[in-house]
Design a protein that fits this description.
The structure holds two protein chains of two kinds.
Chain A: E1 6-17, E2 20-31, E3 35-39, H1 46-54, E4 61-66, E5 69-70, E6 81-84, H2 96-106, H3 111-124, H4 140-152, E7 158-162, H5 170-187, E8 191-195, H6 198-204, E9 207-212, E10 215-220, H7 222-227, H8 232-237, E11 242-250, E12 255-258, E13 264-269, E14 278-283, E15 289-290, E16 299-311, E17 314-321, E18 326-332, E19 345-350, E20 355-359, H9 361-365
Parallel strand pairs in A: 3-8, 3-9, 6-7, 7-8, 13-20
Antiparallel strand pairs in A: 1-2, 1-4, 4-5, 9-10, 11-12, 11-14, 12-13, 14-20, 15-19, 16-17, 16-19, 17-18
Helix pairs in contact in A: 2-3, 2-4, 3-4
Chain B: H1 2-9, H2 18-21, H3 26-46, H4 58-65, H5 67-99, H6 103-118, H7 121-132, H8 137-145, H9 158-181, H10 186-194, H11 199-227, H12 231-236, H13 244-255, H14 258-281, H15 285-288, H16 293-296, H17 306-337, H18 348-365, H19 371-375, H20 392-399, H21 401-434, H22 440-452, H23 455-469, H24 475-500, H25 504-511, H26 516-527, H27 529-545, H28 548-553, H29 561-571, H30 575-601
Helix pairs in contact in B: 3-14, 3-22, 3-23, 5-9, 5-11, 5-18, 6-9, 7-9, 7-30, 9-11, 10-11, 11-14, 11-17, 13-14, 14-23, 20-30, 21-24, 21-27, 21-29, 22-24, 24-27, 25-26, 27-30
The chains are: A alpha+beta, B mainly alpha.
Chain lengths: 366, 605
């Protein structure tokens, strides 16, 4: 994919409302056929960025290039984009057929070809039988597919999706995630997707652009963001994590860190750390394991097992360390496990490769 | 009310029957049956008898054969039709601006748009007389600017009637259209633009078509209301511009012929009904807009008739053509200014919209203020600009027993009407919103009927009834009459706020130990206070501004303020009227601002 053509390029885009910075200095590239998700909590600027790409908001500064042409301030109808809105925005007074025909009519395509094209995309989304119905007569999932069909029918350079599954219930949402993903592969479309749901982002995306407070925190493949977060925010937002405070003792591979309660911890880092710098150490709960007698690991901590919670397929263990910190760990449930119980002293071990040292931005800032 | 409270106090062992629980609506129903349905039915019934008491159609034959009545009917329709056209056309841009603006801007603009609505009809009409006369403000301005050589006749003709009527009806058109437009999802326009539609196409093909039910409803309401007008054609029109309500007045006041007045009333009523029916059937809400908008506005859809489909096709064609035209204009504009994708766009069309709306809002707001300078003239005639400065006309007003007693009487009647309507209407609104009433639609229709029925018919019918029970000219008679006109406003306002009220708050209060009565007093009423105040305000203004009922029920020595003004306007226009108008204007303004502040403090919206 690295060699593919860049379909969308956002350069240092910013949007400022009075004293509020909705988006600061956003830069990203989207390649042909790629599925990129803007992920972040509400107010993180992801929708602002999407609207700037769509031309529905004019940026305060920066540039937007679509398919190699500058389009920063071009009106939406001249941008060669398609949007699936959160509430689908299907025209209630037009039938499904007319809804899908709308963008083609705007492009003055002859009626005969419009009929062909509409039939083609209705086939793709498997809703050919609904052509003469009105949007309100369709279920939520069907409306969703029609909205998709409407914005793929004219082959726009990019398709933007603004939390398109937000209104659906859990089960249908899971189903539609896969369906959109399949359509993406089948049609080879380029997608910029917005969501606040990390599972959705991980399921669907080729790359995720993680946003916070109007800024881009990190861009990368889902696995990279999950296992190699660049910031505490990234570590915290995606999945579950244990964050232990520490100070860099020695630079090297592995990095040596003085952890809480005199723990010596071996970790890896993304570089740029100096000795004596305060850091947070991130370990995923599933990377921790209980050590048997005589067993060893890169990093070992001793503590008291406080609680075991059974959550179906997995069990959660909460281990209190000497200085009051609690480690959460996750194990697959494999039959009744009576080996350890609350109150017992346990040894917890994990490898250096699963430990990421992150600069402690909060302390640096104060 | 106390016995009613006691009735609510006891926890019943058996569930109450629906018709028992609906008791709060009965006082209003009884009132409407006695003082609205009965007298109107009787007046209409009377029209089928001759002077000797025998059944006869001679009244109708007379209407059908004497050319003057058909002519009046024709003029009535003509005036109402043109008024509707101009009010809807002029109101559309403002309604669009209001519906698409932020809430703050919307509230401010709405206040301006509703300004003529709150200002007394007589004050407004008087203001137009000052502006439009041969030596009025507009003619002076035109002469001074050298636009014309001789004064243009703007008054006592069709032009005058149109200006006054459109000015009076446009707020109604705007409010009706805004209520539909606010429900149009703005992302639809955004979606259209991302799908490749220019502004013009997106507006005409999507927004305009979705707003058509609002346009249709506004047109219908304006037309039916305009049919019953008499103040404006009487004061701003010439002899040719006589509307049917004026004829009914003269039949009563000069001939005292109830039967013939009844017949004319039925004709007016039938005309309204026919219009309503035709509008709904042929150009109906759903068909006008291409067959499917009904769904968007929650209206029931009918199988489209051939005519409907024809008009739908025509509608789509027109809309597409308009969209195309706008786009060509837009492209031409683009050629002219050469927009560049690397330069910020300017919201040009929005500015045009603001400009057009500002002009129309000026037209709505400005005229009434012309009464103020005129009232301070030291001359003996209405003059603009006024001669010198004096308070003599205020002195004349305040030292005249006729004027002061009329003012006092109007205040008392309006206050009483406000209180009575608010109590009756609020009780009924609770039942209408919260209970599954048998025949709810019929009851609602009855409660709202005084809004739709031309006021003239209600006034004549009440006159006939009150004359027999001898309460013509009394305060009681006026309050009864005004309550009929005012109560629908209270019901609508309170129903609207009750629909947004979370009933779980009441349930929480009950679960915390409050009985129904205390929950009502401590939880419900304080929270809907905004709605109650608004309802009271509507009722107060309706009564304070009413001339139709007062025309017959009050008179001579016990005239209300509008009645007194009407006499002077007909007999001798003088600067005292300007002084009175200024006082009314000031009073209403203070009244509305006070109510608005009260409402805000009450935490209503």
């Amino acid at each position: 994919m690295a060699g593919a053509k860049v379909k969308l390029s956002v350069r240092n885009a910013a949007k400022i409302y009075g004293s509020v910075t909705a988006l600061a200095d956003a830069t990203l590239d989207l390649r042909e056929g790629e599925f990129l998700t803007l992920l972040g909590p509400s107010g993180s600027g992801k929708t602002t960025l999407l609207m700037i790409v769509a031309g529905l908001i004019q940026p305060s500064s920066g540039e937007v290039w679509i398919d190699g042409k500058i389009a920063t301030y071009a009106p939406p109808h001249k941008r060669d984009i398609g949007i699936v809105f959160q509430n689908y925005a299907l025209f209630p007074h037009l039938t499904v057929y007319e809804n899908i025909a709308f963008p083609l009519r705007m492009r003055r395509m002859p009626e005969a070809r419009i009929a062909q094209e509409v039939a083609r995309v209705l086939d793709v989304v498997q809703l050919a039988h609904t052509a003469e119905r009105f949007p309100r007569e369709l279920s939520g999932g069907q409306q969703q597919r029609i909205a998709l069909a409407r914005c793929t029918v004219y082959h726009p350079s990019i398709i933007l999706m603004d939390e398109p599954l937000g209104a659906l219930d859990r089960k249908l949402r899971d189903h539609m995630q896969l369906e959109i993903k399949h359509l993406h592969t089948k049609l080879g479309i380029t997608v910029l997707y917005v969501t606040h749901d990390q599972d959705e982002a991980m399921t669907m995306s080729d790359r995720i652009c993680l946003m916070n407070n109007g800024r881009i925190e990190q861009i990368g493949a889902p696995q990279e963001l999950y296992f190699n977060p660049a910031s505490i925010f990234a570590a915290d937002f995606l999945g579950e994590s244990n964050l232990l405070p520490g100070t860099v003792a020695a630079i090297g591979d592995p990095l040596r860190v003085d952890g809480p309660g005199g723990l010596k911890i071996r970790a890896r880092s993304r570089g740029g750390l100096r000795p004596d710098e305060p850091v947070k150490l991130m370990v995923r709960p599933e990377s921790l394991r209980l050590l048997g007698p005589g067993e060893d690991a890169d990093n070992v901590a001793e503590g008291v097992l406080r609680e075991v919670v059974f959550v179906g397929g997995v069990q959660r263990y909460y281990v209190a360390l000497a200085d009051g910190l609690t480690l959460a760990m996750k194990r697959l449930t494999l039959g009744a496990d009576t080996a350890v119980g609350p109150g017992q002293t346990v040894r917890v071990g994990w490898s250096a490769a699963h430990t990421v040292a992150l600069p402690d931005t909060r302390e640096r800032g104060s | 009310m106390t016995s009613a409270a006691a009735g609510l106090d006891y926890a019943r062992q058996r569930p109450q029957r629906g018709w028992v629980r609906a008791w709060p609506i009965y006082p209003l129903l009884a009132f409407l049956l006695a003082f609205f349905v009965y007298p109107v039915a009787q007046l209409l019934w009377l029209s089928f008898f001759d002077a000797a008491g025998h059944f006869s159609l001679r009244n109708y034959i007379h209407i059908a054969t004497a050319p003057v009545y058909l002519q009046v009917l024709g003029i009535t329709f003509q005036i109402a039709g043109w008024t509707t056209l101009f009010a809807v056309l002029g109101g559309y841009p403002i309604a669009y601006l209001l519906a698409t603006s932020a809430a703050r801007t919307r509230n401010g603009l709405m206040l301006l748009v509703l300004m003529p609505f709150w200002t007394s009809f007589l004050v407004r009409t008087f203001a137009w007389m000052i502006l439009l006369g041969r030596t009025g403000a507009i003619n002076r301005l035109l002469l001074a600017l050298g636009v014309v050589d001789a004064p243009v006749s703007l008054i006592y003709n069709f032009t005058g009637v149109m200006i006054g009527m459109v000015h009076g009806m446009m707020p109604l058109a705007v409010v009706t259209m805004v209520s539909v437009m606010q429900n149009i999802d703005v992302t639809l326009m955004r979606a259209a633009s991302t799908l490749g539609a220019r502004g013009g196409q997106a507006f005409w093909r999507i927004y305009f078509r979705l707003s058509l039910p609002g346009v249709a409803a506004a047109g219908l309401l304006v037309f039916i209301t305009a049919l019953g007008f008499f103040i404006i054609p009487a004061l701003l029109g010439g002899a040719r511009d006589t509307m049917i309500s004026q004829v009914i007045i003269s039949v009563i006041q000069e001939l005292m012929n109830w039967r013939f007045a009844g017949a004319l009333s039925l004709v007016l009523l039938a005309a309204s009904a026919v219009v309503f029916y035709l509008y709904d059937r042929i150009l109906g809400m759903s068909t006008l807009s291409g067959g499917a908008v009904g769904a968007a506005s929650g209206m029931r859809q009918r199988r489209p008739t051939l005519l409907a489909r024809g008009s739908a096709w025509l509608g789509i064609g027109v809309v597409a053509a308009l969209g195309w035209l706008c786009d060509r204009a837009g492209e031409a504009w683009d050629l002219l200014i050469q927009p560049r994708p690397d330069r910020p766009r300017r919201a040009f069309s929005r500015k045009v919209l603001w400009g057009a709306s500002a002009l129309i809002i000026l037209f709505l707001v400005l005229p009434s203020f012309f009464v103020i300078p005129v009232s301070f003239t030291s001359g003996t005639f209405i003059d603009f600009p006024p001669h010198g400065f004096s308070l003599r006309w205020y002195h004349t007003y305040l030292s005249s027993p006729a004027w002061t007693s009329a003012t006092l009487r109007s205040l008392i009647v309006a206050l009483a009407t406000g209180v009575v309507s608010t109590i009756l209407g609020t009780a009924a609104a609770f039942v209408l919103v919260r209970q599954r009433l048998v025949g709810r639609m019929a009851v609602l229709t009855l409660v709202l009927a005084p809004l739709i029925l031309p006021r003239m018919i209600i006034a004549v019918a009440l006159f006939y009834l009150f004359a027999r029970i001898d309460i013509v000219g009394t305060l009681l008679g006026l309050v009864l009459g005004h309550t009929i006109l005012a109560v629908p406003y209270v019901v609508i306002t309170v129903m609207a706020i009750l629909k947004t009220y979370d009933e779980r708050l009441d349930q929480a209060a009950w679960s915390l130990g409050a009985n129904k009565w205390r929950a009502l007093c401590h939880i419900t009423l304080p929270q809907i206070r905004g709605g109650l105040i608004a309802g009271f305000l509507f009722a107060f203004i309706t009564s304070f501004d009413d001339l139709t009922v007062a025309l017959f029920i009050s008179g001579g020595n016990n005239a209300t303020l509008p009645r007194q003004m009407w006499n002077d306007l007909l007999l001798q226009v003088n600067p005292t009227l300007a002084a009175v108008s200024t006082v009314i204007l000031l009073f209403i303004t203070v009244f509305i601002i006070a109510a608005e502040l009260l409402r805000r403090r009450a935490g209503g919206y």
